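Bench notes, afternoon.
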Amino acid sequence: MLRAMTLELVALIVEEYDPAIAFFVDVLGFALVEDVPATTNDGRGKRWVVVRPPGAQTGLLLARADGEAQRAAVGHQHAGRVGLFLRVDDFEGTLGRMRAAGVELVTEPRDEPYGRVVVFRDIAGNRWDLLGPRPS
């Protein structure tokens, strides 16, 4: 018998915590779920920062880059592809807030069989799809 599972967190490597928190909370409307002191495996200080879209179970762990390999991965976690997908009920309202905040849009909004979509870059440079209902 299979037991229930959930994907709780996805790590997103960022340059710094506070600008990333501001982007996800103030621009995209995520909730700041946790921001607490933690330590690295070798005892150095860091923060455990989790943001989550309203009503979602899965959140993002905002992980500050630690070392050259991680700094090189900032903005390239999906090798230039869209790797994260944010579905919203109010596509036009969300898109308007993003435009007002200066979020980089990679494409113009378009209609696809799965809904309205526009590709944007997050604060680290990763590509996301903003997905909304298909207009009727």
